[in-house]
Amino acid sequence: MYAQFFGSYLLSRNAVTPVELKEAISHLSDSHLRLGTIAMSKGYMTAKEVDEVCFLQTREDKHFGEIAVERNYLFDDQLNELLKSQNPDYLLLGQNLVDMGVLTNERLETLLAGYQKENQIDPAAGGDDIPEQTTELVRNFFFTSDRTLSDLMVTYMNLIFNNLVRFIGGDFTPLSPAFVSEYDTNCAVIQRLTGVLPLHSGIDMDKEAAIEFASRYAQMEFNEFDEYVQASLEDFLNLHNGLFSVNMSNTSSKEAELAPPEFTENRSVELSSNAFVVPVIYPFGTVYLLLSPDN
Length: 295
Prior knowledge:
This protein has 295 residues and is an alpha+beta fold. Helix content is 50%, strand content 17%. Strands 1, 2, 4, 5, 6, 7, 9 and 10 form an 8-stranded antiparallel sheet that branches. Strands 3-8 form a two-stranded antiparallel sheet.
């Protein structure tokens, strides 16, 4: 989830706009991470050195790594390591923003260093998200919003972000949570949990976003909002909460009991005093995560 929360980090620093971020995210699947971006993220090269090598490539018919070694910006063993390494998508997101002209390499270098330091991300760790680090990403995400979550709520939120990646797609960015006592729904599914974590949880979106969300989840194409789309939304939320309950049973011998999910449309719902809403931007629209812990 490094890429998703890097996008949120960039927004919080006013480094990008939501429109620019959405465009950069939409190109993640058809972009290729370049050697200079990786070298910069690991601290092997500075932004100025990367820019210089990129310029020299327009004058010499040589690979990036070859020029970097010739200029003593990289050692041979560093180059071999970079060529073999797997790297997280947040580097690719930053690279896309540089290619779009939104960021310079120098600005990206500063933002990467700040993001890695704030979230204790080891650039040498490789491309796989480390569970302990992704949990801290979620915790820091809410901490920067002046709200501290309980350990159980952090676990719950970490799982729902992971399930969005698994079942809907990783091309999203969560925006800062809004803490509310009531919420006006579009097309929402809400489910009550009792037991280990008493709360009402939900997902809400407009009909166009719901059609694409359901299409991705069911892995089939829907063209209109109907009972199949509604059922897909309900099934996603029920699946997520079911996985949370199973995880709790396995790790703490305590379960979350689930009521049937309920669909509600175009009405205001009252939430608890500890409730919050997390907007999650996808290329097809915004999905709102509703969390209302029981007081």
